[in-house]
From TrEMBL:
Protein name according to UniProt: Aldehyde ferredoxin oxidoreductase N-terminal domain-containing protein
UniProt organism field: candidate division WWE3 bacterium RIFOXYC1_FULL_39_7
Top-level taxonomic group: Bacteria
Aldehyde ferredoxin oxidoreductase N-terminal domain: residues covered: 7-175
GO molecular function: iron-sulfur cluster binding; oxidoreductase activity, acting on the aldehyde or oxo group of donors, iron-sulfur protein as acceptor
A Pfam family that the UniProt record links to this protein: AFOR_N
Length: 280
């Protein structure tokens, strides 16, 4: 992982082109909604759809959502979707996917690590990516679903994808990362996993988001807005008791090799507030 800058996959639908950019000055936005809003500001003239993950996605329990930031008729919306998508994006080695412009024809995007392929609308989604390492985002009737189950509240995502002529995405991440020291990481992982009683939803038998054993009945419809620290980490809002604990957050960040300070975390809400003011 690149721990000194944010790595962004920029996709231009009109030109059917993509490139990877690194932004050292965006590291202070942590990830998720903080990073998504700043990228929305940087690319606002290109009507971006921004998918972002945080530093804990793929590594710790209950940090299992993907942040979606978009402009809905002049209103900036932040949504959160569950499933395996956050882990697949994390293991592409990138922090955000920024989809700009509009495709000439209805299209499917296949993303394998940082390589983007533009596919025709009749492409069979199940033929894309690598089974076991991919997330499929596809439409079923009126809603887009991740892994055929997880979706977002309202219809903001559906409207934006339709505006862009995108009818599906397949995202595969093949990179691997090993936290060092591994034994301390595993110890912390299991300490957090054992805090199931702090999760504010009941355990059930529904499909779970990545790195979550709860199987709750709330994961299917995702989240809308909320605590900016939780959604910059991109943790589940029902794990707020865990991930609003600054000590836990710093332990997780440090074990993964990040050098964020208490001041960085304390300044995050103000950074996001200023970014929103600039956007509006």
């Amino acid at each position: 992982m690149n721990l000194t800058s944010k790595k962004v996959l920029l996709i231009d639908l009109e030109k059917e082109a993509s490139e990877v950019k690194s932004y050292a000055d965006l590291q202070k936005y942590v990830g998720g909604v903080g990073l998504g809003l700043k990228l929305m500001h940087l690319y606002k003239d290109l009507d971006p759809l921004v998918l972002s993950v945080g530093p804990l996605n793929g590594f710790f329990p209950f940090a299992s959502k993907t942040s979606v930031v978009l402009n809905d008729s002049g209103v900036i919306e932040d949504l959160y979707i569950g499933g395996t998508l956050s882990a697949r994006i994390k293991f592409t080695g990138i922090d955000s996917i920024v989809i700009c412009g509009k495709a000439k024809d209805k299209s499917v995007l296949e993303i394998i690590d940082t390589e983007v392929t533009f596919k025709p609308a009749d492409t069979e989604m199940g033929s894309l990516g690598l089974p076991g390492r991919r997330s499929i985002v596809a439409k079923d009737d009126t809603k887009f679903f991740v892994d055929k189950y997880f979706t977002t509240p309202e219809y903001f995502l559906e409207t934006k994808l339709e505006e862009k002529n995108i009818i599906g995405l397949a995202i595969t991440g093949t990179e691997t990362f090993k936290p060092v020291p591994l034994d301390k990481y595993q110890e912390l992982y299991h300490k957090i996993l054992a805090r199931k009683s702090d999760i504010t939803v009941l355990e059930n038998v529904h499909p779970s988001c990545f790195n979550c054993p709860m199987g709750c009945d709330r994961s299917r419809v995702g989240e809308l807005g909320g605590n900016v620290l939780i959604h910059s980490l991109v943790a589940c809002q029902y794990a707020e008791k865990i991930y609003s604990d600054v000590g836990v957050v710093f332990s997780c960040l440090n074990i993964l090799g990040y050098d964020y300070t208490h001041e960085d975390i304390e300044n995050l809400p103000k950074l996001i507030e200023e970014t929103l003011k600039n956007l509006n």
